[in-house]
Amino acid sequence: ISKTFGSVVANNHVNFDVHPGEIHCLLGENGAGKTTLMECVYGFYHLDSGEIYFKDKEVVIRSPHEAIRLGIGMVHQHYELIETHSILENIILGVEAKGLLIDEKAAEQRLTDLCGQYQVDLDPHMMVWQLSVGEKQWVEILKALYEGVDLLILDEPTAVLTPQEAESLFATLREMRERGLSIVLVTHKLNEVLEISDR
Q1: How does strand 151-155 pair with strand 72-75?
Q2: Half-sphere exposure (Cβ direction) of 40: Cα atoms closer than 13 Å
Q3: pTM here?
Q4: What is the DSSP letter of 98?
Q5: Cα of 158 vs its chain's centroid, Å
Q6: 177 close to 22: Cβ distance less than 8 angstroms
Q7: Secondary structure of residue 24 in the 3-state scheme
Q8: Residue 4, C-beta contacts closer than 8 angstroms, at least 6 positions apart
Q9: Cβ neighbour number for residue 76 with a 10 Å cutoff
């Protein structure tokens, strides 16, 4: 993949792969092009050149919506949540409804099941503005899991977390890996790479 912004070359013929059921760390200094590469995979940016293959098929990803439909989710460093809405509303917002109405009770049950599966203690009816930074990150991760992604990209996920929150996140990422999810963790922290990465 190659991606430029004017005269700035962000990605220069980068080859990258991730396997099913692994935690793959993408390590580099700030400004190295890690996030740009992942945002190309997520459809946030369009490639200048190169190909993307997902599940052995070449795909053209024109938007994050298309990426999610394929099974690729991304949690950005800066969260994209609506502060005046509840956790549940943020998670079901934008999910394609079958028909005109969303079954809120079924959505709440599905979210509650996900929280139980990954030991996340969140009340679906809490407003986003009431949450800590770590809890907001969980809402973003739950949004991706709710959509049923197979590949989860996390961009510098520990940047805003306490050491205890980071440990809790890593424990959950290991559990996700055991369930077959592929995870790409973008970071510039070598200690995290050594602790969490399979590759």
Answers
A1: parallel
A2: 24
A3: 0.91
A4: S
A5: 13
A6: yes
A7: strand
A8: 10, 48
A9: 19
Rounded to whole angstroms, what are the CA distances from 70 to 7, 54, 55?
32, 8, 9
Structure tokens at 65: 């919506």
Q: What is the residue type of 182?
A: S
Q: What angle do CA 96, 76, 143 make, to 5 degrees?
A: 35
Buried-state track 132-160, b at ≥16 Cβ within 10 A, e below 16: eebbbbbbbbbbbbbbebebbbbbbbbeb
- Give the H or E element holding residue 137: helix 133-146
pLDDT digits (tens, 9 = 90+) for 135-183: 999 999 999 999 899 999 999 998 888 888 888 899 999 999 999 999 9
> What angle separates helix 104-117 from helix 133-146, to the nearest 10 degrees?
110
Report in angstroms the alpha-carbon separations of 76 from 10, 50, 139, 187: 18, 23, 12, 12
For residue 86, the cross-strand partners are 127
Q: Residues 27-47: pLDDT tens digits? A: 998 889 999 999 999 999 999
